[in-house]
Amino acid sequence: MAKEVLRMENIEKEFPGVKALKNAFLNLYEGEVLGLIGENGAGKSTLMNILGGIYRPDAGKIYIDGAEVSFKNVFDSQRQGIAFIHQELALVSHMTVGENIFLGRQLKKYGFISQFMMNEEAKKYLSMVGLDISPKTIVGDLSVGQQQMVEIAKALSINAKIIVMDEPTSSLSEKEVQILFDTVRKLKSQGVSIIYISHKMEEIFELTDRIIVMRDGNYVGTKITRETNREELIPMMVGRELKNYYVRTYNKIGEPVLKVKDISVEGKVYNCGFEVKKGEILGFYGLIGAGRSELMEAIIGLLPQKSGEVYINGQQYKNLTPLKSKRLGIVLVPEDRKLKGLILKNTISFNITITVLEKIINKLRVNKNVQKRIVDDSIKSLSIKTPSERQRVMNLSGGNQQKVVLAKWLATNPGILILDEPTRGIDVGAKAEIYKIINELAAQGIAVIMVSSELPELINMCDRIIVVREGRIAGEVMKEEFDQGNILRLAMGGV
Amino acid sequence: MKTKTNKLENSIFGSVKEFFRVNVGIIIAFGILFVVMSLIAENFFTVSNFINVLRTVSTNAFLAIGVMLSLMLGGIDLTGGALIALSGCISVALIQRFEASIPVAIVVSLFVGIIVGFLNGFIISYTGIHPFIVTLAMQSVCRGAAFLIAGGKPITIMNDQYTEIGNGFLGPLPLPVVYVMFFVFLTYILLNKTKTGRNIYAVGGNATAAKYSGINIKAIQIIVWTISGFLAACGGIVLSARMSSGQPSVGLGFETDAIAAAVVGGTSMYGGVGSVGGMVIGVLIIGIISNGLNLLRVNSYWQYVAKGLIILMAVYIDMQRNKKNRA
Lengths: 495, 327
Fold this sequence. Notes:
The structure holds 2 protein chains of 2 kinds.
Chain A lengths: L3 E12 L2 E12 L3 E5 L6 H8 L7 E6 L2 E3 L4 H6 L2 E4 L11 H5 L6 E2 L2 E2 L1 H14 L15 H14 L4 E5 L7 H16 L3 E5 L3 H7 L2 E6 L2 E7 L5 H9 L17 E10 L3 E9 L3 E6 L5 H8 L7 E6 L2 E3 L4 H6 L2 E4 L3 H5 L6 H6 L3 H4 E2 L2 E2 L1 H14 L16 H13 L5 E5 L7 H16 L3 E6 L2 H7 L2 E6 L2 E7 L5 H9 L3
Helix pairs in contact in A: 4-5, 5-6
Chain B lengths: L1 H9 L1 H29 L6 H26 L7 H19 L3 H26 L3 H20 L4 E2 L3 H8 L1 E2 L2 E2 H19 L1 H11 L1 H6 L4 H27 L1 E2 L7 H11 L11 H20 L5 H26 L1
Antiparallel strand pairs in B: 1-4, 2-3
Helix pairs in contact in B: 2-13, 3-8, 3-11, 3-12, 3-13, 4-5, 4-6, 4-11, 5-6, 5-11, 7-11, 8-9, 9-11, 12-13, 12-14, 13-14
């Protein structure tokens, strides 16, 4: 086996009230891609922050190239050749690529910063990550994927031997993901070691050589990627057998309840039409930026329609607004729960009832009993884990937050439920619960539209999948014909 | 057992308990301030002084309600002081120069306040210009209009019925205090017992999420700034009646007191958080500090310094609270 470049042993870390790391272990070989997986709260981020010198461990040892080290701060870690690519990009958007790469350690000539030297040097690193742009480009003008490449170039410029990538693809398009993967493979061939953290199992399997699983602050085990599979890893992550990860009982599909024709949104969506039936789960697949969310938002009136007809239960409605749509029983559970779904500093109760205020506030009287009933029912039926309905939403885990967003819309008793990325960024346990809920809703006769970038969940949950590409409907695939490769080809275009 | 708690929470007692729970910090601060002033300032602890303080702070309370509501939306309203001047000048000018009846003068003046507030809200919601800029510009417009209407100097009014509006009493209470209590009550109802109130909290907490929830954000913004304009006009009429004149230069810097009262009262500069009860205590705290310093014969310019420092401190505390909540 190759040389071991990093070893972290028996790492412990306690925060007030929580022991985030109890007995963590991680080792990394030269030129390998290591997948680090575990549910939210398993301690991955804490362990990486210790590696980055942000936290100091309470106990445990860290070895770099076999020699014990201790990181007092971020610079100690950088000096050992460790670099981080974070979920949220850490670039200054109004500065140039070159300036960003050398931020904080500008190259100087005669005591003055030399743009020329920096740009020349930057070119070298940009070509290493296969980014064909001028170092004089303003970072804000780049796509998110390109910005990520700049981050990697920056990591290379400090001669990083170990690069930690934390959910790097969460905001990348499919094409950009492929470029990122190619870059990772190239770095690997140059002897750089990479720790790759992701919730997306497909990525882990595609990219990594070896996988370390963490759970509850502990090291659970190591697997060689090509010798393991999802069924083996998921129980390691959740500590129990997750039987029926995807739950879908197929029920009788009824009449069409929503029919849209010829919907267009300026610059985003072109002449899209489809229908969805009672009790059906209709999937919408497409690359990020394909216009799926915009199509849904235009239907319920969040975005202006350039053209289009919407029929609900056979009747045509014009100029819908989110409020009118809600009254007609068609609701959208938006993607990005923190931005679009929740009022984080308010309570669970406030958030769930904001869509149904007419049921609880009447003639200057707040009916707290009805309010409590609605909220208690939601907490129970979606099993939201919280000590009280007065808990602020910001204190909940991602999965529970997602359930609150769902609850808020289910409280309106919708007949048509549009879910936009209902499982993004939540851990596998919570995902399984959401799938179960979605299945129950369809069984109750709700027409469910599920927009997702995760093909496996669509394939396992849906009756039918519509593929959107560049604002147009590229195809429709029935359950019997579901095939990952075909659907992906439809979404990517070309052959 | 369960129904018992529910009943309790439904009752006034429940709301009072909630009020103390939320505002415990400033209630203690108010208590300490009150005791200290009683001990060191002669004539502080007298009925006539209390009535005097209440009457004085009533003008600030009119503005503070509007400022609090606008802060709760994550905005601000700086129009108040100038609108006080404008509305006072309009009603006095109408009576004194055009021999309008008092009700007509008041209605016209309130209408102008509503229009100014509506314009603020309309511009903010439809153009997306920051409320700070919109209301600052409107402040200048109103101040200018007040001077134009008044012809550059105060208009004195000789009409006992009119001046009674600001100087009269209801029992032991000065009328301005009665008006303020009435509007404070209405604001309490608005924020706690209406859908609009919940929607104000929702829009202030996260406007995007509110939009996705089917809340008409523009309507909420227009409502809030319109209320603020209306209340400032009320304050202006009352103040002009108290001073027996419409003064175009009155109300300079009143926004500072109103902002101070709102933030001391726990209104968050980040939006989405605020309570009427807290704001009332905030108004009283600012009022007692001014009053106490006056009684102690401290140079009145120090009051400005004190208020500035109080605003900084209150906002800093709010920030710390926000940080803690985020972690």
